[in-house]
Design a protein that fits this description.
The complex is a heterodimer. By secondary structure, chain A is an all-alpha fold. Chain A contains 12 helices and no strands. Chain A is globular and about 70 Å long. Chain B has a single domain (63-262), classed as Orthogonal Bundle (MetI-like fold). Chain B is built from 11 helices and no strands. Chain B has helices spanning 9-33, 37-42, 44-55, 63-95, 103-117, 121-132, 136-162, 164-172, 177-216, 219-228, 232-262. The chains are: A mainly alpha, B mainly alpha.
């Protein structure tokens, strides 16, 4: 036996036989980075509680109130249901319009930002940093500004949502456009096609499946955003929820929230099936 | 005459149906909301006027207050993501059918997470504000609820995708539930978890600004009060600061994510 073991050690000298007979499974050197990162994360997170000035004791002691609230909300009432329904339809309409307009502008600006289509580096950098700024400001802020400029009503909602969604699409689409292999574009350039022809016959069709995936993702977000627009002053279901909560009509608010949930869930299901079917 | 069809017939049919549906929806929505894009173009002069005279140049009054408010918003986002992340990891262990000790009940956890997730954080904030009153603490809970639901869903998916083979082999050799978690799930999924955590911080910085607007405190509330009192120049300054903060956080999380993924 010992002879075999010695021979084995000669053949594979690097084999390190542990005394306890355990196989080493950890790479300490690799894990170190991760540990440092995790520790730093925990530290930052714990420190971030300090400046919050939250009265935790009071907060925890009032937790049961949330349960009571849900009890009240679950007593759905059909009072003023036509009003809720109109507000809901308005929200859906705002979502659809904002998505369509932002797809339209997103494709145009996405093309202008993508580096393989526009060769001028200055233009792409300037435009993309402008869109980064537009994206960094939360949607409700844009809606509030649109409210100031355009007055109350769904128009402010559509414009405000479109600003943010266009910036999102411009970035997302330009990434998909840049993923189009350069051979495809070169092949068309060689045949003497102009920029528009290259875009519509090569870049856009090649990026189509990605574009549809992005649209599906953004449509969900747009609905959530337009559902909350009413809470900062624009119309729609958010306004219905806020007014009925503030007027203590909890049943009405409960039904409106349920409507939001059911719709969001249906959209999620729809787009997961679309993704499974068409985008492999 | 004879053209070579560039697109497959089936695919072409789908695209045609898709286009028709989109056009119909567009028409209905336009009629319902009475949205006329020309109106925006017509009033673009007014918008430009508003931006140049009321909005610019951005100024900052009381910079210390604004700095404190930004700090509150960022801290609110990080702390709520942290708490929600810890809760979500524990819940996801029970919600994933492949490793949960009670796979029958895994579906219930998934359903609850789906329900919580599909209601926007601001709606949560409003529900909580009307039961607990306004304040940073209530904004914190609202963010925790929505982030918790989102992360639970994401973690369950990561667990199911990544660690299926290793958990199965551990199950075969008779490992217990805690052993399976600490030897298979956590080592193989930790990078995904961290990546989702960073993504949620990005989301929550935005969400905590918005929740702040309706009563959660922080920079959102400050911005909202300036907008409501028509002090647009200060509001413009605050908007720039919010944008700068969010871009900075995005850059930082993006850098950390590539570092963590490189370790693979």
């Amino acid at each position: 036996m010992t002879e075999i073991a010695l021979r084995a050690q000669n053949i594979i000298p690097s084999v390190h036989v542990c005394k306890k007979g355990k196989i080493k499974t950890k790479e300490n050197h690799q894990d170190l980075d991760l540990y440092i990162f995790l520790m730093a994360m925990v530290l930052v997170s714990v420190l971030s509680f300090l400046p919050l000035n939250i009265n935790w004791f009071k907060l925890v002691s009032r937790m049961p109130d949330i349960g009571i609230m849900f009890g009240k909300l679950s007593q759905l009432s059909l009072h003023n249901f036509d009003y809720t329904l109109i507000a809901f339809v308005e929200t859906v309409a705002i979502t659809i319009l904002a998505t369509i307009y932002s797809i339209f502008f997103g494709i145009i600006f996405g093309a202008l930002v993508s580096k393989n289509f526009i060769k001028n580096r200055l233009v792409t950098t300037l435009l993309s940093s402008f869109f980064t700024f537009l994206r960094a400001v939360p949607t409700p802020v844009w809606v509030l500004l649109a409210l100031v400029c355009l007055g109350l009503g769904p128009i402010a909602g559509i414009v405000g949502l479109s600003v943010h969604a266009t910036a999102f699409f411009a970035r997302a689409f330009s990434q998909s456009f840049e993923d189009v292999p350069p051979e495809v574009i070169e092949a068309l350039e060689v045949t003497g096609a102009n920029k528009l022809q290259i875009f519509f016959s090569a870049i856009l069709p090649a990026a189509m499946s990605m574009i549809i995936a992005w649209i599906g993702m953004r449509f969900e977000i747009n609905f959530q955003e337009s559902a909350i627009l009413g809470m900062v002053g624009a119309g729609g279901i958010g306004f219905a929820i806020t007014t009925s909560l503030q007027g203590y009509h909890y049943g009405v608010a409960g039904l409106a929230i349920l409507l939001v949930f059911v719709y969001a869930y249906c959209i999620e299901l729809l787009f997961t099936t679309i993704k499974k079917k068409f985008i492999q | 005459m004879a053209k070579i069809p560039l697109i497959h017939t089936r695919e072409k049919k789908i695209y045609t149906i898709f286009t028709v549906v989109v056009i119909i929806l567009f028409a209905i929505a336009t009629v319902l909301t009475k949205f006329n894009p020309l109106q925006v173009i017509v009033s673009s002069g007014e918008i430009w006027n508003f931006i140049t005279t009321d909005f610019l140049p951005p100024t900052l009054t009381k910079p210390v207050n604004i700095f404190n408010a930004i700090l509150t918003t960022v801290c609110l986002a990080i702390s709520s993501t942290f708490i929600a992340g810890i809760m979500a990891i524990i819940t996801a262990m029970f919600g994933s059918e492949s490793i949960s000790p009670w796979p029958k009940y895994a579906k219930i956890i998934r359903a609850v997470a789906t329900f919580l997730r599909n209601i926007p954080p601001l709606v949560w904030a409003f529900i909580l504000f009307s039961s607990l009153g306004i304040g940073t603490g209530v904004g914190f809970i609202a963010l925790v609820i929505s982030t918790f639901a989102f992360m639970t869903r994401a973690f369950i998916e990561s667990i199911d995708e990544i660690s299926q083979e290793s958990t199965e082999s551990l199950l075969v050799v008779g490992a217990t539930f805690p052993q399976r978690i600490f030897q298979a799930v956590i080592p193989s999924c930790i990078q995904d978890f961290i990546s989702w955590f960073l993504y949620c911080i990005e989301l929550n910085i935005r969400a905590s600004t918005v929740v702040g607007m309706v009563g959660g405190g922080g920079i959102g509330l400050v911005l909202f009060s300036y907008l409501k009192t028509f002090r647009y120049q200060t509001a413009a300054g605050i908007i720039l600061i919010i944008a700068a903060t969010i871009i900075l956080v995005d850059l930082l999380t993006g850098y950390l994510r590539t570092r963590i993924m490189q370790n693979d």
